[in-house]
Amino acid sequence: MEPPEHARASAPGAAGDPLVGRLLDGRYRIASRVARGGMASVYEATDTRLDRTVAVKVMHPGLGDDQEFAERFVREARAAARLNHPNVVGVYDQGDDTSDGTDTVFLVMEYVPGHTLRDVVRKEAPMAPTRAVALIEPVVSALAAAHRAGLIHRDVKPENVLIADEAHGGRVKVADFGLAKAVSADTQHTATGGVLIGTVSYLAPELVVDGRADARADVYATGVVLYELLTGRKPHEGESPIQVAYRHVHHDVPMPSLVEPGVPDYVDALVARATSRDRDQRPADATVLLHHLHRVELALREGLASDPELAADLLPRRAPADDADGGDADGGERTTPQPFDAEALALLTEVDPRDSGLVADGNPDRTTALERHAVPEERADPPVIEPMRTTTVAAAPAPTRTAPARPAPVATTPRRRSRRGPVLLVLAVLLLAGVGAGAYWFGWERYTTTPAVLGLDEVAARGELEDAGLEAEAGEPAYSENVEAGLVIATDPGPGGKVVDGGTVVLTLSLGPERYDVPPLQGQTEDQAQDALAATNLAFGESKARWSETVPEGQVIRSSPKAGTVLKPGATVDLVLSRGRKPFEVKDWTGRSIDTVRATLTERDLEVSVAEEYSDTVSAGDIIAQDPPAGSTLYRGDTVSFTVSLGPELVEVPRVRAMGVEAATELLEGLGFQVRTEQADNYLGLGFVYSSDPDQGDEVAKGSTITLYLI
């Protein structure tokens, strides 16, 4: 058996556990171990991405290499993730971490700080029926949701029922759907090649006999848990698991009132109905059990110490088993099988059903609610009444008179004939007639047959039931792939089943095919999107990353199929996640033509800003400087600033002809020129400028040298 998903029953973390402190999948930081089982261990951990406490269930080393175990572990995640119910522990994620060279297969689940129902049993049991019913109701509600989704828990027990602290709402949650399997034709056998799955104290008889399980196996285990809450003990105990399993198969679960006399008869009947060894006598699934539980809960709220009609309606209709030789062990004559009815037996024996002195079969382990006192000595020969066996009546022999061998030769006084024999015979006949009449009334006459209303709408079905003298009640609706929405797909009791005259028939109406719309996921994180898919019974497929200029990194851009698409439950939906804005690395563009660089950046949706200045070293039109510098990161829409060369700055040479050499030199140097003087060919020594090179009006670069020719 696997451990509960994260039981709070003081399970210490193992010293030196190599997983403690490890970061699984780069996200889940393991803190401490809180539970350990044969297949996996459960750890308290921190989701570093969402900064929340979670429970991580890790398969034991080596099992991850077994393909069958690994596939079953993954199926657990997908099956449990389909359940979206306030009383079911949520499953968030599943993964396989190989960072240390080994496969570490794990599940990530909701963390429920608190304790288990087992802790409550230890502290409070036996408890009042009102308290017991209040604790078991959310468990049945969670199982009903699972059964409607086609899942069986297979390991219902107090350890797998978590109760949050009052600071966290005190909600009751069912954990460890790790043994659950989808209900289908090929998943009715045990999940481990014939090895029984489940805890033996809560194991349904059919699991022991032939390994087959359906929703009724969960109903049986829930009934055993209710018995334990009411009495503080398990119904069957033994020195070994085999002995306990044997008792589940061959002995009924005793009535709780045998241990706790204050338990009402209708609560006894509910336990008997849920734990019937004949699974056909149990509620078909947890939804039907939840309906019966609500009836019992209503009677408890009204303070009823006894409700014979409700008790009789809840008790299983059990047919006696025939003996191999066709009669009873005492050789008595076997009568027609009679259904077990506590109210009828109470009337016939003139005692309260729970205070009867009748004993079944002389076997102290095979008990019913009638087994409490010894048979009174003055009733040495009453009929032995046993729910699972035929009822026998041994008639008292009539007194006889021995005839003389020959006539007496002397006269004698006539003997008085004894009246005791005829009186006992009459009483036996009357008792047999009373038993037969009562059994006929309580076993057949007061019942009617449930009419067939499958395929009718609710109004028509109610009309049919009312015409038959029955009441109709709408139960939990269910999805159907082949029955139109609004029509009846099942009844409880089923068509042709027995129901008390004037009783109630629960109608299950079709919701039509189970379909779900793909929710709008754009703008959500991957975890939020997965939670939204799980809430609509859709499965997460895979995610792909794409650049996006409008959707922030880590958020959903779109889904495939898109939002609004109608899908069957369990269909996969893929996500496209944003990688954020696409970055561009800045290169060194200095010295390159501004026209070429501008064209390249415009294609990448970058803005270009240009400033110009003169440069004596950079050619006109080339880039002198850029901002940001090379190696920086840019995104679409960002701006790159460039300083572009205008080439060297040009200055017009002024007229200096006929000017004195000093004045001309001062003028040219003031304009930034260098001045050099030479004598003209016709130099006279006057000291005036005859001409210049470059000549007046020419544009030359600032700082150029001007030659003055003197005359």
Query: What is the molecular shape?
Result: rod-shaped
Say how many strands there are.
Answer: 33
CATH fold naming of the largest domain: Transferase(Phosphotransferase), domain 1
Mean pLDDT: 77
Strand content: 15-25%
**Strand order within the widest beta sheet:** 1-2-3-4-6-5
Helix percentage: 25-40%
SS-based class = alpha+beta
Spans of at least 5 consecutive residues whose pLDDT stays below 50 are: 1-14, 179-197, 319-415
Taken together, the total number of domains comes to: 6
Annotated CATH homologous superfamily of the largest domain:
Transferase(Phosphotransferase) domain 1
**Euclidean distance between termini CA atoms:** 120 Å
Q: Main β-sheet: number of strands, strand sense, barrel status? A: 6 strands, antiparallel
Indicate the CATH class of the largest domain.
Mainly Alpha
Taking all Cα atoms into account, the compactness measure Rg is: 47 Å
What's the number of helices?
15
CATH architecture tag of the largest domain:
Orthogonal Bundle
What are the SSEs and their pairings?
Elements lengths: L22 E2 L3 E9 L3 E8 L4 E8 L7 H15 L9 E7 L6 E7 L3 E3 H8 L4 H20 L2 E2 L8 E4 L7 E3 L6 E2 L22 H5 L5 H17 L9 H10 L14 H10 L11 H16 L6 H7 L18 E2 L7 H8 L42 E2 L26 H26 L1 E3 L8 H10 L3 E4 L13 E5 L5 E3 L3 E6 L6 E2 L8 H10 L3 E8 L9 E5 L5 E2 L4 E7 L4 E3 L8 H10 L3 E7 L9 E5 L5 E3 L3 E7 L4 E3 L8 H10 L3 E6 L9 E5 L5 E3 L3 E6 L1
Parallel strand pairs: 15-18, 20-23, 25-28, 30-33
Antiparallel strand pairs: 1-2, 2-3, 3-4, 4-6, 5-6, 7-9, 8-11, 9-10, 12-13, 14-17, 16-18, 19-22, 21-23, 24-27, 26-28, 29-32, 31-33
